[in-house]
Amino acid sequence: MRNILSILIAIGIITHLCSCEKDFLQMPLSSSTTVDSVFSTTIKAQGALANAYKICLSQGLPYKNDWNAMVQENISGGMTYGFSWSPANNIMINGMSATSTNEDMDGYNSVFPPIRQAYLVKENIDKVKDMSAQDKAIIKGEMLALIAYRYEQMLIIYGGVPIVGSSLISTDDIAIPRSPAKAVLDSVISWCNQAIAVLPSTWPDTWKGRMTKAAAMAIKSKALLYAARPLFNSTTPYLNFGENNGLICFGNYDANRWNTAADAAEAEITEAETNGGAAIINTGNPLDDYGTATGKPGNAEVLLAFKFINTTLFDAGNWNNLPMNAFYNARVWEAQGNQLTTNQLENYYKADGTNQAWPVLDAVTPFADYTTKMNQMEPRFKASFQPWQMDAWSNPGDVNWNNSATFGQAGSGAARSSKFYYKAGSRAWFEFPIFRLASAYLSAAEAYNEMGQNAKSLEKLNKIHQRAGLPAVTETNQVNLRSIIQREWAVEFFHENYRLHDVKHWKLTNIGTGIIGGPIRVFFYNSSTGVKLTGNTNFADKVIYTGFWAPKQYLNPFPQSEINKGYLLQNPGY
């Protein structure tokens, strides 16, 4: 085995996980000798710990060339679907299906191996002889937090799921039925509370990126926010499931769930800022501040990130070298197909806080108007996108991010995505921010508004809104403020795997008429002949496709292959 410093790079645990070719889960874990060997020393056990972080935190991310990765913005109407063969294309046009292999995240069959890995570390860490009892307790807390994270994600995506309480062995009954949604929520909160009790507030630089109290609190806070939203917090489910309604909603509306969500968000903010050294980055330069918060590895606003350092620029002979790579995902994958839709573009403000006046549908407009309007947009837009015939604002003066370097093979769309690469230069890899402190502020703002406490709501909302260089929001009408907060989520957390399930759990009335379903619009250029590197003459907003929406899609389907085994009950409508 390599020494610990070479194993634990960046956070100390994500990039080069261990010297073995196989992942820890591929070892014959039924053999007690193998387990004893892996957990014989601290250094060897770190390989198992590293792998638990890697596979638990990678959900929905392209760390192993999963083509379904990073498609949530496609399905939620924020980005076009790209190529016709992409998984997003079929889901957006035809809806979700129980026979699909991946849906909008990693897929149900990819969830339990990471959970088992975390349990294996938790159950066997006491075997390590050269590790202190305190360090062992912390590692157990880390594993509980990772398990809670995966279950929180499953709860949001599927509703009630099977609750697994151990790593399971071959003699265990693995045909575990679904538990009610409330039971899954209670388990997530319990695991988080146990983790919070033992996790440190900070780590030394060598270990930056491991679970902290604030990170575990972020998991808890997110679970409680979704529990308070209308999809689960309801007397009746989105579709009648008869005696199984408890699998897809809580069966009652409890206004106190919003209070619990607000308390969890406040606790996260207090811990992160008081003890964890975290902060909302606000130096008065909003482009730099937001760009740093979302695109600079290891910045003070990120509470938990997926850290995967991939320095390979392009290797056609080994496709697994390409994911989490700017020159592949941003410049080729996104620049050649996944472009910003007008539907999402309209969520962004102008720099003065007003709405931009984009051309009406099908109106052919001079391209000079496109350039003028793009330059008027708010800093968060400029940190996240690169318009056509323009260099990236996020990497000013950098040859790696000029118009020609990032042009790709685009045909339509409002702009190219440049998020996660603020002042990245030639850095190919990016760190995906799983939890930023900004989410706690917006969670609290949302909860306080639903509680009728608009002053507190505005205080939390404006912490984020004004950091973006925008004038303070002063709206006090609950319905109007709710829409403003939801718009803030759409802008602040674009491409961070929030939007798709946010709009479902809010049960937005227009979800089928311009978000997931309905007309999805993009800019076409040069009388619909395609955008050019230079010399574009006009553009027009047009419908590129009609998205599919049906109420069954509020929650995802379980794979038909699992349903056929007879132990798992399918969500209604599939």
For the sheet with most strands, the description reads: 3 strands, antiparallel
Oligomer classification: single chain
Quantity of strands, as a count: 7
Q: In percent, how much strand structure appears in the residues?
A: 5-15%
Q: State the strand order across the main sheet.
A: 2-7-6
Helix content: 25-40%
Number of helices: 21
What global shape is seen?
Answer: globular
Mean pLDDT: 88
Low-confidence stretches: 1-33, 332-336
SS-based structural class? mainly alpha
Radius of gyration: 23 Å
Termini, distance in Å? 48 Å
Note the run of SSEs as H and E.
HHHHHHHHHHHEHHEHHEEEHHHHHEEH
Give a short synopsis of this structure.
Mean pLDDT is about 90; it is low at about 1-35 and about 330-335. With about 575 residues, the protein is mainly α.
